[in-house]
Design goal:
The protein is built from 3 helices and 4 strands. With 163 residues, the protein is an alpha+beta fold. The protein has 3 domains: 71 residues; 41 residues, no CATH class; 49 residues, no CATH class. Strand 3 and strand 4 form a beta hairpin. It starts with a helix and ends with a helix.
Length: 163
Amino acid sequence: MPGARERHQIAVRDARARFDADVMRHAEREKSREAALRAETAAHAEAVRNIKETVSRQHHEIDELETDYEAGNPDAIRQYFELVLSSQHYPDGWPESVRVAFVPESKQLVAEYDFPGFEIVPEIATYKYVKVKREIATTQRSDFERRRLYSSVIAQTSAARSL
């Protein structure tokens, strides 16, 4: 075929030029990727160092608290029990206020809590769907039952917090 050799050489030359350009773009992208990787690695190493410093500082504070607690330091005893009692988890809306006092002379620890009000016990005892009427019927709790449940909740909470 006349001119086929020339067309083939032109096609090879064009393909080689595209290949060389692609190799250069890839090399540039790889340089950029490696630079970003170095920056992220340095940032990660800094974050790890900060976390280790924080953990070390926290461990030191805990060790100091333990030493002071065992030595009978009233502030350390109060702080320890305040931390323990405030670490309890309760449902949303539940007051989580706790105040602690320690009297070293009598070795008496006093804890003061804020409990939720009587309204924490719902007035409605049950819900029932009545298919025939296509409505939800409710059953009310008596005041006696609500007071009994409220007393039980407070007693259980007090027992859980005293553990």
